[in-house]
Structures are given as structure tokens and as C-alpha cells.
Amino acid sequence: MKLKALVALLSDGQVHSGESLAQKLGVSRTAIWKQVRRLMDRGFEVASIRGRGYQLVSRVDLLDSAQITDQLDAALAARIDLRVRDEVDSTNAEVLRQIDDGCDSRLPICIADSQTAGRGRRGRSWQSPRGENLYLSMGLIFHGGFSVLDGLSLVFGVAVAEALETLGVPDVGLKWPNDIFLPAGKLGGILVELQGELQEGVVRVVVGIGINVHMLKAGGVDQPWSSLASACPDTEWSRNRVAAAIIGAVADAAETFSSQGFGVFREPWQNRDIYCNRLIQAKDGELKGVGKGIDESGNYLLGTLEGGEVPIRAGEISLRVVL
Ligand code: BTN
Fold first, then answer.
1. pLDDT digits (tens, 9 = 90+) for 18-63
2. N or C terminus of the chain with fewer C-beta within 10 Å?
């Protein structure tokens, strides 16, 4: 018996007797009891009500590939290879395996309920608790060699910000190069990994996106953070809906970037720049200046006290506000 089938039956929040669950799923009552224990081990809150049955007390927001594809534009839905997984090491790594397995010419996409080795920028790990957040990766191909990729990670930041805005999230900001911010702190991050040239000029990129959706507490996160649920508590957040919006926006942005280049993304990026006109530092304080937005290649411009502008290249540098 699939755990998902049991959760689906319990997801109405009503009390269900062990007998009726067993009947509907074609298993014994003991099997139901064992599966309820498994659900509880996985963090679901299931009340066992004496003489009556079981009731799911915690929120349920299951990932479901059909619900995601149903919300996509039909043409896009037809050209993706979507894997929804319970647990993976990293969705970026899973997309690479998906490509190795052969996904024809379809767009490989992986979404997981949890990651055991979620990766962040600059070699950091990305906390990926089960059922709480969105962990999504897409494999994309670009023509024109590595140099065309300048600014690409900023393009994905704009796409994710726009997707969230269409879902009604206010005040979405971008922190260079591609962190997604809300006023209370970091909402999500983007990890772009280059997979090398497939043939001359043809480059494969895996873009991994992590968005805090339901998370209301996080141990060990060393900076202010936010989640969709804490920022917009009146919305019933569905990870399938957030995933569909982001997949659509990233696929569109990748096409626009391929046909028109980075230039068209510059203004939408600047409009959300959280460091604009703030005193910031790079390279652990070696460089200080005022945030001046990005140049035509996506480098961040630091206005120096002497009146010049120093471009900061992406890669491993990060910017911080000077306190
Ligand atoms: C950052 O450091 O801000 C980037 C975080 C990117 C996390 C996402 S979660 C989905 C994908 N899989 C990973 O292992 N990392 C990215």
C-alpha cells in the first residue's frame, strides 16, 4: 500500500475508522495501523481516536505531478520530463541522472519532498526538511558557448520573482546575484550549475531553486529568513501551484534569454534590487560602496566614495550590507 493513498484518504481532516480505510485500500487493519505509524515517523500528526479511528491533524500539501502539469501551459506540459520524488540527495544531481537515463529532447525537471544533501551556493548545504518547502531543478540547454551565460543566474532570479508575484506575494526582492528576498529575510535561493559543452557552443545548465513555503521554524540557519506561509499567512499555499508557476516562468525566461539576450532582464532585475543605494561591502570588507544595480552583463556595480563604479563579477563573491 502506498503511503500517499492513505494520506489522500485522510486529507479531508475527518475521522476515518481503521476498518473503512482498510476496506478502501484493500489491506488489513493491522497494515493500516503500521502505515499510520510510518506517517507519524515522517512527521505527520495523526490522532488515533479510541473507538473511532484516525484523523490527520497536520497540514497536508502533497507533491503531485498531475496537479503540476495540469497548471502548465499545454505546450510546455507536453515537452517536459517531470520526476516527482519522495527523497533524493539533491534535485540538481537527480536531474543529471534523469539526463543520463535519457529524457529524449524533453526538458528534465525534478521536484522532491526532501533532500538529504541539498546544495547551496559557495559549497554550502541547503536545509531541505520533508514536506515543508519547494526543491526544484530543471535542465536547460543554451547555444553560444559559456560566454552567453553571463547574467543567466540573474535571469532565473527575475523569473522566480515574477512567478511569486503572479501568485500574490508582495515585495519580492532580489539580492545579487540570485537570492530571493522578502522584507523579513531570505525566501529562497538559486543554484546554477554548468554541465560543460555538449558539443561546440552548446552548453547544459542545471538550475536548482529552493523556496521556503510552509517553514515556520528553522534551526541552524544563520541569517534572517522568511517563508511564503509566514509572509502571507492567509493564503493556503500549495507547493504544486508554486512549482507550476516557477516552471512556467523559468521556461519562458530561458527562451527569452536565448532569443534576446540578457539586456531585457536588466531593468526587471534592478527594480527588485534590495541593495540599491545602500552601503554594502564585498570580499569581506575589502571593497565598500553604494549599491548601483547591475551592468549590461549582470555584474554588480559598487559606487565608490571617490565617485567611480567598480563592477563585481558573480562567481563566489557575495555582498553584504555594511552595519
Ligand atoms: C543558495 O545557496 O542560495 C542556493 C540554494 C539552492 C537550493 C536548491 S533546492 C533545489 C536544488 N537542489 C539543490 O541541491 N540545491 C538547489
1. 999 999 999 999 999 999 998 888 778 899 999 999 999 877 888 9
2. C
**What integer is the mean pLDDT of 296-306?**
90
Q: State the CATH number of the domain containing residue 296.
A: 2.30.30
Give distance in angstroms: CA of 32 to centre of ligand 1: 36
- Measure the N-to-C terminal CA separation of the chain; round to a whole number of Å: 55
**Alpha carbons 158 and 105: distance in angstroms, whole number:** 26
Task: Give the Cα separation of 29 and 21 in Å (integer).
Answer: 8
Look at residue 323 in the predicted model and tell me its pLDDT: 60
Quick check: is 217 catalytic?
no
CATH number at residue 27: 1.10.10.10
Residue located nearest, by CA, to atom 7 of ligand 1: 210
Of 94, 119, 186, the one to substitute when testing ligand 1's pocket (max ligand atoms within 8 A of C-beta) is 119
User: Are residues 178 and 305 both part of a single domain?
Assistant: no
Domain extent at residue 176: 65-270
Percent of the chain with pLDDT over 90: 68
Set of cell numbers at residue 36: 499510520
Give the H or E element holding residue 190. strand 185-199
Find out whether the beta carbon of 91 lies less than 6 Å from any atom of ligand 1: yes
One domain, residues 262 and 287: no
Q: Round to whole Å and give the CA distance between 116 and 121.
A: 16
Place of cell 494520506: 7
pLDDT tens string 129-183: 888 999 999 999 998 877 777 789 899 999 999 999 999 999 999 999 989 999 9
* Number of domains composing the chain: 3
pLDDT of residue 202: 87
